[in-house]
UniProtKB/TrEMBL annotation:
Keywords: Hydrolase, Lipid degradation, Lipid metabolism, Membrane, Phosphoprotein, Transmembrane, Transmembrane helix. Its EC number is 3.5.1.99. This is Fatty-acid amide hydrolase 1. GO terms for biological process: fatty acid catabolic process. It is an enzyme of class 3 (hydrolase). It catalyses: (11Z)-eicosenamide + H2O = (11Z)-eicosenoate + NH4(+); tetradecamide + H2O = tetradecanoate + NH4(+); 2-(5Z,8Z,11Z,14Z-eicosatetraenoyl)-glycerol + H2O = glycerol + (5Z,8Z,11Z,14Z)-eicosatetraenoate + H(+); N-(15Z-tetracosenoyl)-taurine + H2O = (15Z)-tetracosenoate + taurine. Substrate binds at L197, S223, I244, G245, G246, S247. Residues 102-569 form the Amidase domain. Belongs to the amidase family. The chain crosses the membrane at residues 15-37. The active site is at K148 (charge relay system), S223 (charge relay system), S247 (acyl-ester intermediate). GO terms for molecular function: amidase activity; fatty acid amide hydrolase activity.
Amino acid sequence: MDNFKQVIFWAEPNWTAILTATACGTGALMLFLNWLGHEQSWKKIQRAKARRETSLQQAELAVLQFNESHPGTDTSLILSLSLAELSKQLKGGTLTPQAVFHTYMEKTLEVNRRLNCCTEVLLESWDQLEDIGSHKDGLLYGVPVSIKENIGYKGHDSTCGVICKLDLPATGDSVLVEVLKRQGAIPFVKTNVPQSLLSYDCGNPIYGLTLNPHNPQKTPGGSSGGEGALIGGGGSVLGMGSDIGGSIRIPSSFCGICGFKPTANRLSSRGAVSCSRGQKSVLSSFGPMARDVDSLALCMQALLCDHMFRLDPTVPPIPFNQQVYQRSNPLRIGYYENDGYAMPSPSMGRALRETKALLERAGHTLVPFSLPRLSYAMHELVIRGIAGDGCATLLSNLKGGPVDPSLRVQIIPYGLPRTVKKILSILIKPIFPRIGASMESLCGASSVQDLWRQHADVEDYMHEVMAEWRRCELDVLLCPMMGPAYNHNYPGKLTSALSYTTIYNLLNFPAGVVPVSTVTAEDEEELRHYKGNYGDLWDKLYKKAVTGGEGLPVAVQCVALPWQDELCLRFMREVERLFREKKK
């Protein structure tokens, strides 16, 4: 039946056949109505693709015209500058906003042709460019900024890759976009996401599949995968993403860039779109992605301003603490190499050990640390929390159109009746305990009372982890970061590996990613003997997912306590500095 629906969905209408089928009874009528709904979805998709193509063509033309009238623009220099250097030259007048804007637009168009990472060029950015002189005092004056597709921009869709959100353009800018503009930044392109955002792949039926800038056979990660691909490919100097289970950190790791997930609500989410709005167990955060840590810090400094606090009074009015970020005192750093739930790949483990050794040589104190009851936290708090409604909200967002191949396997158990999920859990648990427990957790909460109990359990677990943190007298925490980049379509089969990232959304700890190495031939050889912590189906799939990664980036993750975002960034900068010095 599913195959038949797909044929009907993509086929040209055969009215004779349809009318004949309709005459055969109610079932045929329902089939006809189903076809009609799919036909409307198909037209929506075509309109979205046409809008994207038009914006890309107009951008191409504008770049061509600028290049013809400004043949002396040193694009190589502009693209080589860090955000701090670029900002300095823009403010000093050495570079013009027009030259920088058109240089990055041209590079973005080139990267998009290779990687399919952009959903639409924001043509209004040319209007903003004409008036950019009025924002010369802004910290991001003249800087082109890419934004994730779900971040609201007036007049443009934020679809989250689902059909039901097409043709619903934002009536105003999101708070993030408003503040970026006030600080002189120019949001110029929206970037691709996986269907529904609740995936760390990057494909959807509207805009297609995004590729990894280092290897097109690999995924860029998700859900901020378009951002990771564009920045990793050199098409953007600064981007904005969102993170509910690693959605900033995973693409940053897979694409070899830096990414930062702040404490939830440190930056406003007002005006952004989600497929799981109202879910409160595992919190989402908006944050920056860039080529270096100083760029992340500059972006946070620019956004944490009075204008944001006025536009969204629910955001605590805490400006960026530059003093904490600039400190250089020795740190007491907790670390773990294996969280006990998902065994790291050989390159992940090696990257962690090399980082630990460099930090110790630099005078920092490294202390072993382990997260208490992680299996319980993943099943009863993370999965049961995100699936609190039995996955009903997510599935409702997928109605009315095809499901992307990257998501199909992932959602198979979501739609099963609650009783079936429980029976399957009982049958699977003796053989694959981890998979069986996850299946049972997908049942979600059984009642409002059960949901409130689950929220209380999340609070209790947060305090349990923080008590262990205080017992070890830690400043920050160093832990592995998922990687290297997976082969396409594996993320939907491997939610198990998210334990390294999702736990810090649950705990609401700020966390960031710094690339420190690349996969070696020795890592690949060691991977051949990978067994995992459980030896179950997920461990076997993980081995297949990361195979063939030689040369791909590998990162580590830096973590701090809630609201200590500047300390987390300072730790990230220290890791980055040590590896830069090592390369000299």
